[in-house]
Write a structure and sequence with these properties.
Layout lengths: L2 H10 L5 H6 L3 H8 L7 H13 L2 H13 L17 H16 L13 H8 L4 H9 L2 H13 L5 H11 L3 H8 L9 H11 L16 H8 L14
Length: 236
């Protein structure tokens, strides 16, 4: 079984909430127990999980926004790194959403299908072989994100590099993505110029809508967590 592993990795890449923070005490034992995560990746995942348990929620949220909402090269939307703002991205979104719906995973209208936490949630519903096959398709994108996060010494690199290891990402394809510019979230003028030129958006809605909502993921995870962990989230 691998369902819980993909759910937990999904939550670790979602916007931090009280519910995720409370449930994090279970994460490491589940990841270690299911056996999908390579053993040499577990210590770095433990570090990220411990940060969820020990750091203030506001600090976790601010870090998340700085990394993923303000840094285009770290966008958690897979097709951003493959299609950019081209028309091909729109069709890819339609196709991916249709695949979700065919397998019984309904998504909210504000959620973009290529949001990595949502993609991992979908994988958690599939048989192991099929899940690994699908994960392998964007593995080079995920690996490149992991390398960029590692360069920033971010503990979030643990999740991406773990997924890349599970999927056995192609090093050459990863290197090709790493040749693309890696923007600095502290360079506000450069970011503004990119947004004006390409109208890039992050999250499932417009920039004004804030961080992506993962209440549905939390509800589904809650059914498999101890009763005191149950709850729903609104990370608007």
């Amino acid at each position: 079984m691998t369902a819980k592993t993909f759910k937990i990795l999904s939550l670790l890449l979602a916007y931090p909430t009280v519910e995720i923070q409370a449930a994090s005490c279970e994460f490491y034992d589940i990841l270690a127990g299911e056996g999908l995560v390579p053993g040499d990746r577990l210590p770095s995942l433990r570090t990220l999980i411990e940060e969820y348990r020990t750091r203030e929620l506001l600090d976790l949220q601010e870090r998340y926004v700085l990394l993923f909402d303000r840094t285009r090269s770290l966008s958690l939307h897979l097709f951003e790194h493959v299609h950019g703002e081209s028309r091909d991205r729109g069709q890819a979104m339609v196709d991916l959403k249709a695949m979700y719906e065919e397998r019984g995973l309904a998504i909210e209208s504000k959620e973009l299908p290529d949001f990595i936490p949502l993609f991992l949630e979908f994988l958690s519903t599939l048989p192991r072989t099929e899940a690994l096959d699908l994960l392998g398709q964007p593995a080079h994108v995920i690996a490149a994100l992991g390398e960029r996060l590692a360069k920033r010494e971010s503990s979030y690199a643990a999740v991406m590099l773990t997924l890349a290891a599970i999927a056995e990402a192609d090093p050459k394809a990863t290197e090709a993505l790493l040749d693309e510019p890696d923007d600095d979230p502290r360079d506000l003028e450069a970011i503004d110029a990119i947004w004006e030129a390409e109208q890039v958006t992050f999250g499932p809605g417009s920039p004004d809508e804030g961080c992506p909502k993962v209440a549905g993921m939390l509800d589904r995870l809650a059914a498999e967590m101890p009763a005191e962990q149950d709850g729903s989230a609104d990370n608007g």
